[in-house]
Amino acid sequence: MYNIFVFSSVQVLEKLRAEFSSSTCRVIHIEKALEFYSIAFSRVFDLWIFEASHPGFSELTLDEVVSIQNVPHLLILGADDNVKAQATPYADKISFAESDDIAKCHALFLQLMHNRQQQNRERYLAGFIQQHPGLETLVTQSPLMENLIDLVKDVAPVESPVFLIGETGTGKELLANIFHNVSRRKSGPFMAVNCGALPDALLESELFGYEKGAFTGASERRIGKIEHAAGGTLFLDEVEAMSSAMQIRLLRVLQERTLQRLGSNVDISADFRVVAATNSDPVELLNNGTLRSDLYYRLSVFQIHIPPLRDRTEDIPILVQHFINRKKRNGREYVKGLDNQAMNLLLSVPWFGNVRELQNVIERAVMLAVSDTITADLIHIPGVPISDTSVDVGNLTDTAFRPGTTLKSYKNLLSQSAERKYLVELLDYTDGRIGEAAQLAGLTPRALYNKMKIHGLKKEDFKKSEK
Description:
Blueprint: E1 2-7, H1 10-20, E2 25-30, H2 36-39, E3 47-51, H3 62-66, E4 73-77, H4 81-86, E5 94-97, H5 102-125, H6 143-155, E6 162-165, H7 172-181, E7 190-194, H8 200-208, E8 209-210, E9 222-223, H9 225-228, E10 232-237, H10 244-256, E11 258-259, E12 268-269, E13 272-278, H11 282-287, H12 293-299, E14 302-305, H13 316-327, E15 337-338, H14 340-348, H15 354-368, E16 373-374, H16 407-429, H17 434-441, H18 445-454
Parallel strand pairs: 1-2, 1-3, 3-4, 4-5, 6-13, 6-14, 7-10, 10-13, 15-16
Antiparallel strand pairs: 8-9, 11-12
């Protein structure tokens, strides 16, 4: 969904709504210049539309508006020569249209969005990496990810805490970084702490810092990550790994917005936005006491669930090409892509390690490739031997163990084969009717389609010809 900010009269607004109704857009409208700064940055907008003849337009300084961070493309309706002259230095950020030519506004908007998507896709497929990643980093064909992007647009500019929930390897730190870079705190620091990587004593000094002489070996003052995050964002990964005592101390900082370094009684102001993350089910963490409920409710003002890779398999080809082009610069410029068998293999794997696991598999394949095409024999997925990508569930007396097959990999392969067998029989029973099949399986049609794609099944193959 596109977010459009409109500063115009009601008459122009109604014309814009009518013209843009064919696009998936949400229009936020103001009529007073006093509302501009509080509304224009309330979420991430894809386009700003200003009516130059509106009385309040003259109250805004164009130079000041365009120079603000994260300003989208600006479309000015009915601009006179004076306004166009002011906009000359920002030709790449500002476009013009007549107030009575609303159709041109819509056409221009569609072209701008198409150009942006194409540019982002081309840069991503080329392996380009943003030093400060924003929404342009999330190139996707998955409706699940598109919904996630809509949430980021709405939530990122707000100061409220965000709690990210996603399996290992889904990109929680990347998403936290994106939240920071499209927020009002973009110019401040982004400080990331993996709470599960440090014992409690080290984590305490890492977060809060310490004074000289606070403990043996503290030869000088050290500023902690919370203090360093002033004016920016603090990302706490695996937050449930903190001890209960540490969780209480963090909770106090979040409530009071002050902290004390180890060995000090002086309160220090703590101005930061917190983004926390876990790869576990928060309900389970609360039930077993791993995560304190008071800290959880403080951190999870807004929850975002990151979909696992197996639920967005349509993104695998894009991710694969991105990783190939990133890695091939290390003396493998001749590598172009994968053959069909290799790609089908990647599409058939459940990817319990998600995007990170896929990245590792592709990087290894690129380094082993001796031609421009990566073949299936170069795809090595730990725990999933290539020769064992299917298991005959119809005959469980077959040998389960063989060298190179772990118990976990065998169970995964068995589960996948059983799932495929079920889907084949289900689709055969329903003659490939997705709605009926999804209802019988207790799935949504979207979830059923995803599973069918993983197993290479097409509904057309189960349509029975009429007698």
